[in-house]
Amino acid sequence: MKYVLLLVVPAFLYLLHGCSANNNNPSARNQIVNKESSHEKDHEAAGHDEQTGADHTVMTLKKEPFSFVIKAGGMIMTDSKGIEIITAKSSGIVKLSEHFLFPGVKTVRGQHLFTISGSQLADDNTELNFRQIQADFEKARLNYERAQSLIADRIITQEHFLDKKNEFEKARNEYNNLNASFKESGNVIYSPANGYIREIYVTEGQKVITGQPLASVVKEHKLVLKADLSPGYLEALPSIQKVNFTVGYSKRFFRTDEMNGRRISYGKSTGANSFYIPVYFSMDHDPDLIEGTFAEVYLIGKVIEDALVVPNTALMEEYGRLYVFVEDEDGDFQKRYVTTGSDNGEFTEILSGLNEHEAVVVTGTYNIRLSRLSSPVPAHSHNH
Predict the structure, then answer these.
(1) Domain 44-63+308-373, what fold?
(2) Most distant CA pair in the chain: distance in Å?
(3) Domain 80-219 classified CATH 2.40.37.10?
(4) How far is Cα 285 from Cα 108, in angstroms, rounded to an integer?
(5) Which of 4, 280, 302, 376 has the most CB atoms lying inside 10 A of its own CB?
(6) At what angle do helices 158-179 and 126-152 cross, to 10 degrees?
(7) pTM > 0.70: yes or no
(8) Hey, is 182 helix, strand or coil?
(9) Do residues 353 and 336 make contact, with C-beta atoms less than 8 angstroms apart?
(10) How many CB atoms lie within 10 A of CB 6?
(11) In whole angstroms, what is the distance from residue 259 CA to residue 302 CA?
(12) For residue range 167-209, what is the model confidence (pLDDT) as tens digits?
């Protein structure tokens, strides 16, 4: 037992001496405090140098290129050339080719979609009409071939020959138009392009007439983004050339300049049921985008080459005026009122109130504001 005490007591005294040395050594204590409470690092963020303290971050201002951004609502639309209406080529009763023919169903070019049959109708019987047109075509063909041999021997006049030729060509065109899609079951309607069904205008067993719309197909063509802009931004419209946007059903961030996008036009007045000005952008088709859905739009203006900007987190408001905290060489903070310009959702342009190379607090501004509002509590003394 004595042997154990001889080992433990010196070790305890050694540790106690080490702790006392650290407490009496300001340098050692400061090293620990500095590592735990604050650190300083330089990095490049939007062209600025930032220094991070215990509860705030300071950024040194530098002039840099800047583009303003206008946030607006919008909608994904299909280019007018991207929608094709399928119409009935003859009158009759409609039969759908599949049970699951609904909007959104993908289609391929040449896919069988509808059949129109007139066999059940007393009038506009498609099968009877086709047989009649076929018989007329055969008759016109024989008359034309006979006229060709007679005109060679000058038995008939040139005028008579041209009449027979004209009758033959009309009958042939009419026959070919029906024969291309006519089957024993009736007149077959095919999909004109790859894409998906946008709308179905008819139901199974419905009677239709020639030229009546049956469905519309959206081709994998160009898309259009319509943005609704407040009239207050009318003067900024000519400088807007590209747009970024997001949709609620995708995590992607879409950029029109990466989709061969361009501004098509913008309205010169608001719509009948809207107080906003429409702005239209054309872009390539993207399978991740659904026509008719809403989008959150960021319209991007022209670049200002030498702009002084601060993060929006640096700005504080007081009675309708904006200000920032500027850190001086002594580490003190000064309230500085500023005049702002455009913003892009993350940074705001400063028109007056700040100069290049000044240090501005960009995070922790609220804590600094609270510390300035609070005053130190006076010390109390007691006489005994």
Answers:
(1) 2.40.420
(2) 149
(3) no
(4) 16
(5) 280
(6) 150
(7) no
(8) strand
(9) yes
(10) 9
(11) 19
(12) 989 988 887 776 665 666 677 888 988 888 889 999 998 989 8
